[in-house]
Design goal:
The structure holds two protein chains of two kinds. Chain A is of the alpha+beta class. Helices cover 21% and strands 15% of the residues of chain A. By secondary structure, chain B is an alpha+beta fold. In chain B, strand 6 and strand 7 form a beta hairpin. Classes of the chains: A alpha+beta, B alpha+beta. Strand 2 of chain A pairs antiparallel with strand 8 of chain B.
Amino acid sequence: MSENLLPFEKVDRGILVRKEAQTDERYGCRPEDRKTEEIINYGIVNIDKPKGPTSHQVSDYVQKILGITKSGHSGTLE
Amino acid sequence: MTGVLPVALGRATRIVQTLLTAGKGYVAIMHLHKEVEEKKLRETIKNNFIGKIQQLPPLKSSVKRQLRTRTVYYFDILEIDGKDILFKVGTEAGTYIRKLIHDIGKKLGIGAHMAELRRTKAGPFDESTLFTLHELADAYYFWSEENNEKFIRKVIQTVESGVEHLLKVWVFDTTVESLCHGVDLKVPGISKLNNDILKDENVAIMTLKNELIALGIAKINSKEMLGERGIAVQTEKVFMQPGVYKVN
């Protein structure tokens, strides 16, 4: 095993076009163009977890730092 | 620091569901209770702990304690220093590394325990985008107190970065609104798609601006999605709010 990859990292991500189409710039917003106010309550932070607190506590700290009322983490270290 | 912990914010919270079931990567130190020949160690791991394994969840775990089958995708020894073995491992979600190490020790007949563990991957998130809580707090301060958004925009990633590991379908502007109301995606609504989608696979439904609309389950494969009719994706979790694409 020369490369250390997870299954999804090996998947072919080629794209098939069913029907070419344009998108109307009047609707929606490209993810990178969202306002900062919006991403604070609709984004993801990848935290380097400190050793002491639980994942749940870290998630709570993130809420407090950003002044938001909801967050979730991807599970404890297994 | 114990590594990668993606935290989803506010309306993005439910995206963690797709990360919970995604593959994980770790670096760890296994401490052997007695020294063992390197060849024996490598053979034991290669023959018993790569691929499908049986694992009993530890006492202190949130799941039922019964043998579960899990997959170890790779196990790569980086360094051997006496009884300390530094290694990289990639596993299916729900594989306990502490337990894996314990079981390797048992198989070797000498015992072993986990000395260190650091997560290096959780689905699409790896160490390249890691920030500490302090850095997050500083970045927020610069934005809220000094009106400088450069740092907070670097620390916070888009919700779309949380579906990078999934295969996707992109839909027409005119299809978006109904999906926001939870309606299933039908074949005629699809503009383009990844070519290897299998039936029953989790997929992300995207706009042509690459915004996440919803997560769903493919009801047919990619080839069939190129057809003319039928339900392509069963909509499961909607992220985009209605009204964004009120096209008509």
